[in-house]
Design goal:
Strand content of chain B: under 5%
CATH architecture of one domain in chain A: 3-Layer(aba) Sandwich
CATH topology of chain B: MetI-like fold
CATH class of one domain in chain A: Alpha Beta
Number of domains of chain B: 1
Helix content of chain A: 25-40%
Radius of gyration of chain B: 25 Å
Largest interface: A-B, 31 and 23 residues
Number of strands of chain B: 0
CATH architecture of chain B: Orthogonal Bundle
Largest sheet of chain A: 6 strands, mixed
Shape of chain B: flat
Oligomer: heterodimer
CATH class of chain B: Mainly Alpha
Order of helices and strands of chain B: HHHHHHHHHHHH
Structural class of chain A: alpha/beta
Strand order of the largest sheet of chain A: 6-7-8-3-9-10
Chain lengths: 254, 289
């Protein structure tokens, strides 16, 4: 297997006293797309939110175990969660453009809000490159000053991808990025994943098994807070080792 | 006609009658509720409009017995008092509102929220006496500053609570989106959350301004009023409300006419602010900037 960009070791996540992840050990290969599938409430989102320390933002949430990024534990006491989040970007289920900002300001938001001073030309270059990478440039290049909220839902989601890419993360987490999108926008995002994995490590949570089969290299199946099975996507979808996995992907439950 | 059918139509009939009666009652209640507003406005216009002229805005009060004169000093005084009150009250109120929204469950937050709610219920004359005791007495006299502080004390809880409510309306997802970009929490709170709530917060501020612009009681103990031109922070100053009060209870017909004019001007200022709010929020509702 290729080198792991990220991995978890016995990761347990809690909401107050309730354990939502029961010790997950999993590796995420560099420059590959790893899909996490499983029924609602199985801990998929909690798992990815632990990977950039967004889990702890929820009041009462905590976790134990290790999450390694390039071999370093991101939960080590000296690590600043803000720095982790700059290296591990995230796109959420619902598109969340900042409503007070124009399209270009949204893309540059990560730079501006972090007080990173760049020249006008450099900023324009980053905005264009990020929008191109997110396959949105051609649609918005003539209206960069318009509000981000004026775009369609699918465009807004790609805007959020561009915004996440503009801060040059190494890993991109996507928490059901297509669940609020129509099939055409979904197809755009999926094409995008294939292009993005050249430069980034991608971890995508999805409810849509066809989506996982289409665009991921590896698939992890989770159920009730446990990692049931992990392997190459083709193997998971053709010859799953576990009975639960087979039942889920053939639509017998979930 | 079968019995069931007649029963059916009779029920229909009573339903319609009941509905009409209730609609009639609600319309009546609305008219009763709104009528005083228009009566007050109409009465103010009929009594005061004749005395509102250029002199009213530009001239000083005339000596007793001499006709003419205006309320220039009181108009300027109102703006000075309210402006200063905003300078003190708005930053404190907005900051406290952000704090409350960010630390919703904290013990200190709950204590602050509770005191803000209590302060909103405190009669404003009590605020006036309070500022008399802590500002006017120690500093040796009535002053613009004391009046502005009294108005700020009234504004702060109003601004705090609206700012908090408006910030809580900002979707949680926006905050998470900013945090996930590696933005520190304080920057997220200020530059994303508070910024997104800004038009709502501005609405709260303007409503608070409209509220204190019409205050008289707290100013009587603090700014005191002044028949002469003054813009000094450390001298007594007049306001439209106090001038209206003084003129309205005077025995002179000319002063009483001017009191009506002052009341009308004050009402128009407050109404203009309220309409400004409507305009502002309508603009924000379309698409933010």
């Amino acid at each position: 297997m290729a080198d792991n960009k990220m991995s978890t070791r016995d990761l347990r996540a809690y909401f107050h006293k309730v354990e939502a992840l029961h010790g997950v050990t999993l590796g995420f290969a560099a420059n590959r797309v790893t899909a996490i599938i499983g029924p609602s409430g199985c801990g998929k989102s909690t798992l990815v939110r632990c990977l950039n320390r967004m889990h702890e933002v929820v009041p009462g949430a905590s976790c134990t175990g290790q999450v390694l990024l390039d071999g370093e534990d991101i939960y080590a006491p000296a690590v600043d969660p803000v720095q982790v989040r700059r290296r591990v970007g995230m796109v959420f289920q619902k598109p969340t453009p900042f409503p007070t900002m124009s399209i270009e300001d949204n893309v540059a938001a990560g730079l501006k809000l972090n007080g990173i001073a760049v020249s006008r030309a450099e900023r324009d270059r980053i905005v264009e490159e990020s929008l191109r990478r997110a396959a949105l440039w051609d649609e918005v290049k003539d209206r960069l000053k318009r509000p981000g909220a004026s775009l369609s839902g699918g465009q807004q989601q790609r805007l959020c991808v561009a915004r996440a890419l503009a801060v040059e993360p190494e890993v991109l987490l996507m928490d059901e990025p297509c669940s609020a999108l129509d099939p055409i926008s979904t197809a755009r995002i999926e094409e995008l994943l294939l292009e993005l994995k050249e430069n980034f490590t991608i971890i995508i949570v999805t409810h849509n098994m066809q989506q996982a089969a289409r665009c991921s290299d590896f698939t992890a199946f989770m159920y009730a807070g446990d990692l049931i099975e992990f392997g190459e996507t083709r193997q998971i979808f053709t010859t799953p080792a576990r009975r639960e996995t087979e039942d889920y992907i053939t639509g017998r439950f979930g | 006609m079968t019995p069931t059918k007649s029963l059916h139509s009779r029920r229909q009939f009573f339903r319609k009658v009941k509905s009409d009666v209730m609609v009639g009652l609600t319309v009546l209640a609305t008219v009763v509720a709104v009528a005083p507003l228009f009566l007050v406005l109409g009465y103010l216009i009929s009594k005061g409009a004749a005395s509102v002229n250029w002199n009213f805005f530009t001239k000083m009060p005339a000596p007793v017995g001499q006709p003419g004169g205006g309320m220039a000093n009181a108009i300027v005084g109102t703006f000075e008092l309210v402006g200063l009150a905003c300078l003190f009250g708005v930053p404190i109120g907005v900051a406290a509102g952000i704090y409350l929204a960010e630390n919703r469950g904290g013990v200190l937050a709950q204590a602050i929220r509770f005191s803000a709610d209590v302060m909103m219920g405190v009669p404003t004359i009590v605020v006036g006496i309070f500022c008399y005791a802590i500002v006017v007495r120690p500093f040796g006299g009535f002053s613009t500053l004391a009046g502005a502080i009294a108005l700020a004390v009234i504004m702060i809880p109003l601004v705090t609570r609206t700012a908090e409510e408006m910030i809580l309306l900002v979707p949680h997802e926006l905050r998470e989106a900013a945090l996930a970009l590696g933005v520190p929490r304080w920057r997220t709170s200020l530059l994303i959350v508070a910024r997104t709530a800004a038009s709502g917060i501005a609405t709260g501020v303007i409503l608070a301004i409209a509220r204190v612009a019409g205050e008289t009681a707290p100013l009587l103990f603090t700014a005191f009023g002044n028949r002469f031109w003054s813009t000094s922070l450390f001298q007594p100053i007049s306001s439209l409300t106090m001038q209206v009060y003084t003129y309205a209870i005077s025995p002179f017909a000319d002063w009483q006419r001017q009191a009506w004019a002052g009341a009308l001007v004050l009402t128009v200022i407050v109404l203009a602010l309220e309409f400004g709010v409507r305009w502002l929020t309508r603009g924000a509702a379309q698409v933010a900037r």
